[in-house]
Description:
Elements: H1 7-28, E1 31-37, E2 41-43, E3 55-62, E4 65-72, E5 81-96, E6 103-106, H2 118-123, E7 132-136, E8 139-144, H3 146-154, H4 156-159, E9 166-174, E10 178-180, E11 187-190, E12 197-201, H5 202-215, E13 223-229, E14 231-235, E15 238-250, E16 255-262, H6 274-285, E17 316-321, E18 324-329
Parallel strand pairs: 1-15, 2-15, 5-9, 5-10, 5-13, 12-14, 13-16
Antiparallel strand pairs: 3-4, 5-6, 7-8, 11-12, 14-15, 15-16, 17-18
Amino acid sequence: MRRRVSFSHLLVALTILSLCGLGSFAQDASVHARYVVMPPHLRDDVPPPATSLQTWNGSFSYGGSNYTYNMVGTAPSTNTSTTVQVYIIPVKIVITARRGGTKTTFDPAHVLSNGNTVTQNTVASPIFDATTTYTQGGVNVGTTQYEDAFQRANFWGTVKTDTNYHVLLGGPTVEAEQTLSPSSTYGKTGSPFGFTAGLVDINWFDSQLPTLINKFGIGPNAFPIFLTYDVYLTQGGQCCIGGYHSSEGSISNPQSYAQATYVDHPGDFAQDVSALSHEVGEWIDDPLVVNTNGNNTPCGILEVGDPLEGNANYGGYHYVLHGFTYNLQDLVTLPYFGAPTSTSVNGWLSFQGESLGVCSNGS
């Protein structure tokens, strides 16, 4: 028998559900913690710069098909080391409330509990510091930077004998802080993870970056990283993007770049340098400077961080350096995309040895 429910009873029920958390659930339903790739912004009417990013081409066979890829550095079999100069551009975001005009500032010059600014703590992290030894499943892949250790493990089948192979981040050089103040159409504040964060439209933000790259005279042979603090990017009104990478400029010699946010709330999405570790790893394996459609594999482009961003702690592993506990995201290796398991250390499909199958978590 269908029971009739009066409006007053329904109103009471909805009130109770709201008090029990339905309101917060509805708000959280629009929150999707993720990273993205922005389509390259390339033009054929721009004179190609004199310098270019050092990259190499490789391939593997899977299921009777051949798949090609382009990565930063030189082929592991060359047994050589590549250093790409990095420029960090701290970006202060100023949000003005639509009503009342109150300004809220999210500044990478913010001083953290360890006495470092956000920018200083980023520079001091294992992303750039080369004093951490990485032992993966009993195999020492090197005392080096995190991304270099990952790439060495990624091609350990070759690197274990060609031990001079490295892909290193030079510097970094920290440029003068820049301020961006989106209008209320493109920027607001919110609490998607329980703390006040800046929420900025990714297309608006991305449109500001070519001018800044040109301002500092950065060329395609270098890698600019735009660092924000407690800011998530939004796309189509949906939060929350922790970082992205792309390329722009001359179609024959593009400029690669990335954005990553530093969240000062342990356990939340994009905490400390986890977003940066994600984006740098993806830039190394998918720099978007040769094939504008991305690299070619059975499960899409070589976005090596995306398959693991939904894991516990957003895929982050703890590394203590200078007394600070950093969170560095695990990254999948080439065998995850279908290459022979003999390619990577221990035949692993991720740097940290996660239990995975080919394309098991998408791309």
